[in-house]
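haha ok so turns out i had the wrong file open the whole time. this is the CORRECT one, sorry everyone. sequence first:
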Amino acid sequence: MNGAAIPSLAKPFAAAAAQLFPISQRPHLRLAPIKSSTSGGNDGGGAPPPVKPPIAPPATVEIRFRRGARRKLRKKEERDEVAKGPSSKKAEAEGAKDWDSMTVTEKAVELYMGEKGLLFWLNKFAYASIFVIIGAWILFRFVGPALNLYQLDSPPLSPTSVFKGS
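then structure:
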């Protein structure tokens, strides 16, 4: 491909872009002619490239830390909690509803999904049973035969045969 053909193609594309996007709609876009180093010196006498002005650093920003405000807010919250008393803190933790004031539906939901409801205990039981089953298998597979309490039908596989798959 000829190096002279590239600059001739760049002019129609630049003209088409100027027609599609007027300058008022593209203030950030600057089109410059494409110059090829293989054009044989036809770039107009070797003018030096334009020098870009240095980028100025952004204006400094002053940051102020308000340490005292958080401490004052925390102390105020502690004073408010002391003024309320321990009974209001317990009521907030329980959802601010007494068991006697709940409807039958609310009681059923609380028993099923509450903080210490049925789902909570089932989850605890399932988690604990994993460790019980693993422990029982280790005892059955390794400890029982090691103590000669019973003998398994086949000896344990060697590591090489485990990796072979036979």
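The helical segments are 5-20, 67-84, 86-93, 104-113, 118-146, 159-164.
again sry for the mixup
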